[in-house]
Amino acid sequence: MHLRSPAIVCAARSHGETGVILRVLTEEHGLVAAYVAGGRGRGLRPVLMPGNLVETELRARPGSQLPSARVELVTSRGPWLGEPLPAAAIGWATTLAAAALPERQPFPALYQALSALLDAVCHAPSARGWLPGMTAFEALLLRELGYGEVARGGEGDWAAQLAAFDVLGPLVARYPLADRRGDVMAARAMLRERLGRIA
What pLDDT does residue 64 have? Predict the structure, then answer.
């Protein structure tokens, strides 16, 4: 396997002394895991933050090892990761994608929806501008994974948006995250708690 593609960083976990296991979502190849040598170094650490858009080059390694990856930053979400609410939104959306999607199965609609959602989180003047997009992303993920169509609503006032977000939570926990609900849903709980502070 050798591919080069734009990708959204969904997760990065330390591996060994200096390496990182990176999980990225690509439009044509779906969620892909790869090893990034030196990923914990000063130069690559800011590139591998969840939510960043990167240009990824993957090369197969012998045997059953993970492919190796080289990445170049295209768009950084770093400035928004210092703000509690955008950071929680970016964290939840990328964590959900990394935990729920099967590897190497393309979901172009989910890639496009996640990309648009991250743009909205970073550029909307408030959460009111992107919460309907978060709800739409969760509903789309449920549909794309075969759990049926969910009426998402939430296009009205802030209370209606929060209510629509609350309706989807149990469905996401019950279906795509059934076997790893606790760890992953904690990111959603943090986002909901921060959303609840908005009057």
Answer: 63
| Side chain identity, residue 26 | T
If one counts the domains in the chain, the total is 2
Per residue, the 3-state secondary structure of 39-98, as one string, reads CCCCCCCCCCCCCCEEEEEEECCCCCCCCEEEEEEEECCHHHCCCHHHHHHHHHHHHHHH
* CATH number, position 67: 2.40.50.140
The pLDDT of residue 63 is 67
Average pLDDT on 84-113 reads 97
Do the Cβ atoms of 21 and 61 come closer than 8 Å? no
pTM above 0.85, yes or no: yes
92 and 35 in a common domain: no
